[in-house]
């Protein structure tokens, strides 16, 4: 209640100050006009007296008329020109308080002014972006909490089982394997979130070196071997050796995330195709998998933070990996795109050969 009172008090003070300035200008104008009238009287250009005008009455009338005009002008100032300003202030106040559904709209000739149209579009776009980010953040917290809790519960459950003395060696090893896998899953989730936080705060590319890109991709495939062997999958890898100057550790995160997604969304017994091409100073890497396509409506959103194209959350993931990919590619002044056709999904990463 106090905040609302302070808000309206501040705005009233602003309007009152503006009104005082307007009135002061008009009063000064009236005085100047009066001085001019007396000057004309002194020059006998304007006659006063029995056959002329009464100078004091004339001055008084001019002052009263000026004040009347000032009052009307002030009223119009308060209710017409400043009305849109008040509307903008209200919208900004709602946005600052967390109401991201607020939108600006004006009517009449005022809305057609270029500056007003630009302001309206910019404000509405900002509000829409904030609303979408807030929704994704909320979904991320819910999903991440669920994803984070699941492996912890598994680890706790199988750790309790291992306390039993009557377990066979085979079952004991199976429990240890599950604990190991779930621990790796937790580690990967934490790593992705930390990587996103790290690259989002980085604006300058550092630690650039020249290395074998083909060999790096082969290594990333081997790192994910346990995942694609489970699905009885194969890989088609480039035979030619390609070299690139970039941040080696960052590029490794790109391939790990994209290949992991390719495995995750591939049909069983299928093949992930990886191809590298060069075009002038650009190295283009294509990673393709066969399986469920990414919906057309989701292709522009998958590189956003916390977004998951699988809204059922049937697959593992927290919507962070591709956001990391996009940020790293941007740091390298490259481009990442996704194409889907006839059950084939291809991620294309284009990077400069030299930074």
In short:
With 355 residues, the chain is α+β, with helices and mostly antiparallel strands. The chain contains nine helices and seven strands.
Q: Specify the CATH homologous superfamily of the largest domain.
A: Histidine kinase-like ATPase, C-terminal domain
| Estimated radius of gyration | 35 Å
Question: How do the strands of the widest beta sheet line up side by side?
Answer: 2-4-5-7-6
> Could you name the CATH class of the largest domain?
Alpha Beta
Cα-to-Cα separation, first versus last residue: 57 Å
Global outline: elongated
Helical residue percent band: 55-70%
The CATH topology of the largest domain is Heat Shock Protein 90
Under the CATH scheme, the architecture of the largest domain is 2-Layer Sandwich
Number of domains: 3
Total of DSSP H or I helical runs spanning 4+ residues? 9
Describe the protein:
A hairpin with a 2-residue loop joins strand 4 and strand 5 (about 280-290). The chain is elongated, with a radius of gyration of 35 Å. The chain has helices at about 1-40, 55-80, 80-95, 115-160, 170-200, 215-225, 225-230, 250-265, 320-330, and strands spanning about 210, 235, 245, 270-280, 280-290, 335-340, 345-350. The protein has three domains: about 1-130, no CATH class; about 135-200, Helix Hairpins, CATH 1.10.287; about 210-350, 2-Layer Sandwich (Heat Shock Protein 90). The model has no long low-confidence stretch (mean pLDDT about 80). The longest helix has about 50 residues, at about 115-160. The chain is of the alpha+beta class.
